[in-house]
Write a structure and sequence with these properties.
By secondary structure, this protein is an alpha/beta fold. Helix content is about 35%, strand content about 15%. α2 crosses α13 and α3 crosses α4.
């Protein structure tokens, strides 16, 4: 494994430590639309959200953080696994200062998000999670939003952009196009890539499920993955602890295990989602304005040029590489991530 090294400088796209204009050259040249400015901040500048809320939405009571003006254009930031809303704890203030209303929800099974009914199937298939976010937008009476995410969040945002583009102003997707075709998942990857995904196969066993149900083991497993997939991120115990608190949700183990077993075709979904999964299996294209981000040190990426998924994005589009950044892009490079959000909304 690559040794972790001190990571106290700002990262991403070779930015300096001063405030930089946001937006591509083309966007900056548009008459009457001056390029916004975002400060380059050190990751970890913020440690908590100032406003946490809960709202009934669909089958869930969703816990979420909110920042920025209530009448601003909306950005919804979606976390991955094994992470939580704190992946955006530095991003949210940057976007709020730029005039955006920022919504950062806990995904099902995480943090303060709970199921309304004890009888609801603890299902984590991709379309169910996407419909959770649509239900949240509906409950908040938000018709359109910029969606930005990584890992599970990228997949969720991409699904909404593909199937419900009228709800999406723009998209920022770390690792590009992550929509899952379960049938295709049955095909093996090269052995080196399979090694990187070791935890998926662990969760396919009863032994792995038991580990996730053990509070200490699931924390240890998450900590191990943080070290492996973000080799330059010099996070401390307190940073990890703030996120690990979200793993204490009573449905956490069931949701995580089902997500990975379902993706591998080892667990069933629910029939009510079949129509969406049928559409997603066809790998629908995404036509909303999009910026894709590839972290240069993310071990899950076979390359960072974006060419493997470029064909799936048919609208205004940019691709960027985040240098010296691992898998948890928004928390490791908050200024670069915030800049991508604002630029995507100007494409």
């Amino acid at each position: 494994m690559i040794n972790r090294r001190t990571f106290t400088k700002a990262v991403g796209l070779g930015m300096s430590a001063t405030a930089l204009p946001l937006g591509s050259a083309a966007a900056a040249d548009r008459p009457g639309r001056p390029a916004p400015v975002v400060p380059t901040i050190t990751p970890g500048t913020h440690t908590a959200f100032t406003e946490l809320r809960r709202l009934r939405a669909g089958v869930l009571d969703i816990g979420y953080a909110e920042a920025g003006p209530a009448d601003g254009p909306v950005v919804v930031c979606l976390h991955g696994w094994p992470y939580d809303i704190h992946s955006f704890v530095d991003v949210a203030p940057l976007l709020a200062d730029a005039g955006y209303r920022v919504i950062v929800p806990y995904l099902r099974g995480h943090g303060s998000t709970t199921f309304v009914s004890p009888t609801t199937v603890r299902n984590a298939q991709q379309s169910a999670i996407a419909l959770d976010i649509l239900a949240l937008l509906d409950a908040l009476k938000i018709h359109r939003a910029v969606l930005a995410g990584f890992d599970w969040g990228s997949r969720t945002a991409g699904i909404i952009a593909a199937l419900w583009p009228e709800r999406v102003r723009a998209l920022v997707s770390v690792s590009g196009y992550l929509v899952t075709d379960v049938r295709a998942q049955r095909n093996p990857l090269p052995p080196k890539a399979e090694h990187t995904w070791w935890y998926q196969y662990y969760f396919a066993t009863d032994r792995g499920r038991s580990a996730m149900e053990n509070p200490q083991y699931r924390r240890d497993l998450a900590r191990l993955l943080w070290d492996e997939v973000s080799p330059t991120w010099d996070f401390d115990d307190a940073t990890f602890g703030r996120t690990a608190a979200a793993f204490e949700n009573p449905d956490y183990a069931a949701i995580v295990v089902h997500n990975y077993r379902w993706r591998l075709g080892l667990a069933d979904g629910e029939r009510r989602y079949d129509r969406y999964e049928h559409l997603l299996a066809a790998r629908p294209t995404i036509g909303v304005p999009t910026i894709t981000l590839d972290p240069a040190l993310d071990p899950f990426l076979p390359s960072t040029d974006g060419q493997g998924y470029r064909k799936y994005f048919t609208g205004p589009y940019e691709h960027r590489v985040l240098t010296d950044v691992g898998h948890n892009a928004p928390q490791e490079a908050p200024s670069a991530f915030a800049r991508a959000v604002l630029d995507a909304d100007r494409l």
